[in-house]
Amino acid sequence: MSHPTLPGQPFVHYAQGQLHVEDCAVNALAAQHGTPLFVYSKAAMLAALAAYQKGFAGRNAQICYAMKANSSLAVLQLFAKAGCGFDIVSGGELARVLAAGGDAGKIIFSGVGKTRAEMHEALLVGIGCFNVESEAEIDVLNQVAMAAGRKAPISIRVNPNVDPKTHPYISTGLKGNKFGIAHERTLATYQRAAGLPGLQVVGIDCHIGSQITEETPYLDAMDRMLDLVESIEAAGIPIEHIDFGGGLGINYNGDTPPTADALWTKLLAKLDARGFGQRKLMIEPGRSLVGNAGLCVTEVLYLKPGEQKNFCIVDAAMNDLPRPAMYQAFHSIVPLHASPTVPDSAVYDVVGPVCESGDWIGHDRLLQVQAGDRLAVLSAGAYCMSMSSNYNSRPKAAEVLVDGGQAHLIRQRDSLADQLRGELLL
Ligand code: LLP
User: Fold this and answer.
1) Within 6 Å (CB) of ligand 1, which residues are found?
2) Which of 313, 351, 353, 425 is deepest in the core (most CB within 10 A)?
3) Is the dihedral of CA 287, 216, 183, 194 positive or negative?
């Protein structure tokens, strides 16, 4: 068997029999920094961004990286330097963008449960837009803005009731979801918002879900959004920008999402056909900018053969890689050494040390491994470190960003002191 193929990962490859991220051997990074270790490729992130930039060439468009996918400061810094704005969902994310040198004016603030304190802070630093999600939030934001002597720029998140055909936990644009304002209520809500002294209507937005691998849901959502823009503007309320959210999927396991530029060529053709081609456009991609730019290296602790299952117990767990436990998600798991033959391979469930049966990273994987070997869990750049926790009092992993032959440590592994900080004995 030749070495495994690496789906969707142009910057992760085998060279001289060893797994590399760009020009850095992953094994050497793991030896230096320990495991579990996240390793990211700067070139992969910039290439993913370039696909969107290519799609939007010549247009008035702002790419706002949905930083919940990976909110590590150096990653934010990279996207800020590349000209991105940010889609944030909390005061913590706001502070991270500012700490990473992001431009407050290019921040949009999403989320169904913004607090008054978060709104106040975002108003003071002058964010670009609040993407409001309910009629109740509109009233509160109006009050907070008036009290601060500011006008809050707003967009209303529309729930277009389109099925994104993805996992139910990451589907957000259907009637039964908690997100956005129902299509039928949208015009009335804009009319109310436009009359409030603390608010300035600037846009309209939607986000229908995540890991979307088909273009039809986007095209349908766009039609519904443009219908609304027409009726809102006919009522005398100008809409400066249209924000189509994020959601484009990546290749985890043979998935074939459209590329960002191919998708946007189609979407822009529709915008042009409907006369909105010159409008300011915004998007909020997260996963598609970082997901396939990262992997997680883990060490095999024990092999545990069993009657029904063989277990390969590794030192990464659901606290580091929560997606399999939460969404039954698939991540490829590959060896760090490409092996020409696999004489003693076996099928394993790859599991972590956490005391839960839900703590698995991959089911039924054919591996040739022994204790002490290292493995790489692929497509781990999005929604892994940002969703990681200290469950079982495990330290959060370290992170390295590779740039050609150089590797920068961008997050130290949690120390025990980090874990105990802030706690008080009785
Ligand atoms: N905009 C809004 C308002 C969102 O809620 C999200 C993601 C995005 C943009 C970015 O979506 P993306 O381009 O990354 O698909 N933890 C889950 C994914 C949750 C997505 C939540 N919202 C996972 O690991 O699959």
Assistant:
1) 66, 69, 87, 110, 170, 207, 210-211, 245-248, 284-288, 323, 327, 383, 387
2) 351
3) positive
Looking at residues 66-88, what average pLDDT do you find? 98
Report the pLDDT value the prediction gives residue 1, as an integer from 0 to 100.
37
pLDDT digits (tens, 9 = 90+) for 236-280: 999 999 999 999 999 999 999 999 999 999 999 999 999 999 999
Q: How far is the CA of 288 from the centre of ligand 1 (A)?
A: 10
Instruction: Give me the residues paired with residue 44 across strands.
Output: none
Instruction: From the CA of 111, give the closest atom in ligand 1.
Output: 3
Q: Which atom of ligand 1 is nearest to the CA of 157?
A: 3
pLDDT reading at 175 higher than 80: no
CATH number, residue 161? 3.20.20.10
163 confidence band (pLDDT: 50, 70, 90): confident
Q: Which of 157, 174, 210 to mutate to test the pocket of ligand 1 (most atoms within 8 A of CB)?
A: 210
Probe ligand 1: pick from 212, 253, 287, 296, max atoms within 8 Å of CB?
Answer: 287
Residue 289 Cα: closest atom of ligand 1: 13
**Buried/exposed 254-284: b ≥16 CB within 10 Å, e otherwise:** eeebbebeebbeebbeebeeeebeebebbbb
For residue 203, the tally of other CB atoms under 10 A from its CB is 24
278 and 354 inside one domain: no
Point out the residues that are catalytic: 355
Q: Is residue 91 part of a domain?
A: no
Distance of CA 211 from the midpoint of ligand 1 (Å): 8
The pLDDT tens digits of the residues spanning 378-417 come to: 999 999 999 999 999 999 999 999 999 999 999 999 999 9
Examine residue 209 and state whether it is found in any structural domain, yes or no: yes
Q: What is the pLDDT of residue 2?
A: 44
Q: Of 227, 254, 285, at which residue does a domain stop?
A: 285
Question: In angstroms, what is the span from residue 36 Cα to ligand 1's centroid?
Answer: 24
The residue type at 196: L
Indicate the pairing of strand 241-243 with strand 199-205.
parallel
